[in-house]
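Q: What changes when MRU is included in the input?
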Amino acid sequence: MKAVEWADGTLRILDQTRLPHQEVVIEARTAREVAAAIGRMSVRGAPLLGIAAAYGMVLSASGDSRAGWEGRMDALERAGAELIASRPTAVNVAWAVGRTLDAARSAADRCPAALPAAVLHEAQRIEREDEVSCLAIARLGADLLPGSGNVLTHCNTGALATAGCGTALGMIVAAHEAGKHLHVWVDETRPVLQGARLTAWELQRAEVPMTLVADSAAGSLMARGLVDAVAVGADRIAANGDTANKVGTYVLAVLAGHHGIPFYVAAPLSTVDVTTATGADIVIEERDPAEVLAPGGTPFAPAGTRVANPAFDVTPASMITAIVTDRGVATPPLGAALRTLLGAPAPRQAVSP
Ligand code: MRU
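A: The predicted holo structure follows.
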């Protein structure tokens, strides 16, 4: 099944905390249940979080049919705030909540009965758009990768993180399918192990040659000439191109810069937050210490050890070779290139201002 699926008034969520060993589906029937699934990372990955949040808004819009227009809009706004708070770094959640709220506000003649259909229509549009975006990113990104060699990736940016084939992982798989001879170094991605559990699973199913490595192996692999490109996703891209992504991404960018290796970020333009000027303004989610203290529920560190668990970090624009978006490839200066792409209706080509 897909990572999320809307069926009969329910959001069916493939519980990613149980993968790869168990395929368990959670059925969310309220916006609060969707927010909870987002918070515990049953559903994850910036684009998919936006889609899940949009369907969470549908569940809210379908609630209490006795309330009038104002009452239902209030409830919808409260549900939106709860969904946004469930994971603050991925801008796609706030973006999708904003789109569904706009759709609700323009529902026919402020008619309460028209709300559920208007919000559902918008959620389905967001999901379809992401599918198309992934294909565009995959095609554009595949062209950037070498004809043969090793690509290193971090976290999970594939079908489990989007409504389509993925972003960074989408471009790697597309390059493989186009006949490029690539081998993928998969960072295990501590502490939640999205690389080991999810990316390895997806690449295995796609039959792309890959090797799982501890995150800390990246430096020595690069020093030995065993990495030809790094490709990662993004949770929020500031207006100047600074990019928040899974913690550990910044280290890879520093290492790639030191070794002269291209460092690619892949994300739909919906991940660009023009209201955030630079990476310094991006809120970094701090997660439960238990993820670090007891991965998979097994305690490693002594009880009572103090833990810091930032889920993301920020890679400065100056360290990024290119951002592959659904409307074109942004190359430095990234802020100007992103502005051009955001302003353009649908140019399907590289942009080098
Ligand atoms: O904490 P997660 O698993 O939601 O983090 C996901 C990432 O950091 C991804 O790299 C990013 O969302 C891009 S997903 C296409």
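Observations recorded in class: The pocket of MRU is lined by residues 44-47, 90, 155, 157, 161-162, 167, 194, 233-235, 245-246, 311 (CB under 6 Å).
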